[in-house]
Amino acid sequence: MLFRSIRFGSSDLAKLCNCSASIDRRWGQPVGAAIRERLCLLAGTPTLELLREFAGLMMEPVTVDQHGRFAVAVAPGCTFLVEPDHKPTPFLRGRELNCNCVKRLVIVEVHVNGR
Asked: What percentage of the chain's residues is helix, strand, coil (to nearest 5)?
């Protein structure tokens, strides 16, 4: 499971998220299935703008926090904390991302309530 348009914030997270069995061991099978599905969706979508077509996936408009990161919904109680893999980060105005220009992401963390 290697995703070209996705990088991970650490080598440990990359090892974990590139192995289906490791994902299931860490977060359980139901959440693991949702994580794998979301990774495939992120990897298979050419721009962040196209991801906005999936209801409930991201905030509208997509704005970043003080670290340049934003959340992508995975499942109830589970989100990816991601940042654009672009230097400089493409902005429209303020902290709103130009989603048409974001083609690569870094998954910094996987947040799962209670785990």
From this structure: 30, 25, 45
| pLDDT band for position 114 (cuts 50, 70, 90) | low
pTM of the entire structure?
Answer: 0.89
Q: How many helices (H) and strands (E) does the chain have?
A: 4, 6
Cα–Cα nearest to 1, from 21, 18, 26, 24: 18
Parallel, antiparallel or unpaired: strands 6-8 and 91-93: unpaired
Question: How many alpha carbons lie under 13 Å from residue 13 in its C-beta half-sphere?
Answer: 16
DSSP annotation of 77 reads T
Cα 87 to Cα 54: distance, rounded to the nearest angstrom: 26
Structure tokens at 21: 């069995």
**Is the CB of residue 105 less than 8 Å from the CB of residue 85?**
yes
In this structure, what is the dihedral angle of CA atoms 75, 42, 11, 16, given to the nearest 10 degrees? 40
